[in-house]
Amino acid sequence: MSYQIARDWFDIRPIAPGIVVIEEPLHYERVKSYLISGNERAILFDTGMGVGNMHGVAAELNSLPLTVVLSHAHWDHIGDAWRFDNVAIHRSEADILAKGVENERLRRGFAPGTLRGSLPADVVLEDLKFPPVIATGLLDEGDTFELGGRTLRVLHTPGHSPGGVSLLDEHAGILLSADAAYAGVLYCHLTGSDLTTYRRTMTRLAKLAPSLASVLPSHNDTPMDPRILLPMRDGLDAIALGRSPDLVDGNVASHTFDAFSVLVPNPLPESQA
């Protein structure tokens, strides 16, 4: 896994003062990682899908001491974490990160139909694996990163996954929401997902909306209008209160709203209703 930076794989652009989005637009998930810089330090929020050299991109864009903060341990966010020296994740998902990701999962992730273009030339999908990563930092609710003129606060935002975190820049009014909130299909049907927990997270984020200037998600369009957090909260509440799904496919039910949709288990466990 020594391939060079795949410039045609990434779309790299400034999105706010001191924040650069590093998008992977050739996959339907449009995964986004963010480089957030202060005067003294920088944070790389997620390391992407692991088929472009995120470490090389970060080195090109940043000369400050760098810490990787992983929003959670799903494969499409941790791909290049093995290249970095300082990697932090919520303590409840550190054991998942330490297992690495096997080839079978990545072949499914890049299966035919998932791509809008070609994988980088040096990537051999049949051989692709993510090595185990031992976190050098364990995150908890309320932890802060002082970057010099910028403070990021860790919000534990589970529901999509047990150890999901978001980052809040209160001064700038910017929420990096990761997979907790984005305009698209919200996954609450996966192993480790929980609708009851997700509702608590979304209620919390919706309360923040009036104080936010923008929301920077990990998928699809960015930035988002913070007001989208309110219908997301209401939608999750409606599902728990018995809303009829718009589509059922085996053991997954889909609920469609104006700017997003939600996948939940079918039937919904009594503990999540």
Description:
There is one protein chain. This protein is an alpha/beta fold and 273 residues long. It has five helices and 16 strands. A seven-stranded mixed beta sheet has the order 1-2-3-4-5-6-7, with no helix packed on it. It has a five-stranded mixed beta sheet with strand order 8-9-10-11-13, with no helix packed on it. The model has no long low-confidence stretch (mean pLDDT 96).
Which keywords apply here?
273 residues, alpha/beta, Metallo-beta-lactamase, Chain A, seven-stranded mixed β-sheet, five-stranded mixed β-sheet, 16 strands, 27% strand
Please write out the topology.
Blueprint: E1 11-16, E2 19-24, E3 31-37, E4 42-45, H1 54-61, E5 66-69, E6 87-90, H2 94-97, H3 103-109, E7 137-139, E8 144-146, E9 151-156, E10 165-169, E11 174-178, E12 185-187, H4 195-208, E13 214-217, H5 229-240, E14 247-249, E15 252-256, E16 261-265
Parallel strand pairs: 4-5, 5-6, 6-7, 11-13, 12-16
Antiparallel strand pairs: 1-2, 2-3, 3-4, 8-9, 9-10, 10-11, 14-15, 15-16
Helix pairs in contact: 4-5
Quickly describe the structure.
The chain is an alpha/beta fold. 16% of the residues lie in helices and 27% in strands.
Q: Please, what is the CATH homologous superfamily of the domain at 11-182 and 212-225?
A: Ribonuclease Z/Hydroxyacylglutathione hydrolase-like
Low-confidence stretches: none
What share of residues are in beta strands?
Answer: 25-35%
**Strand count:** 16
Order of helices and strands: EEEEHEEHHEEEEEEHEHEEE
CATH architecture grouping of the domain at 11-182 and 212-225? 4-Layer Sandwich
Distance between the termini: 45 Å
Q: Which fold name corresponds to the CATH topology of the domain at 11-182 and 212-225?
A: Metallo-beta-lactamase, Chain A
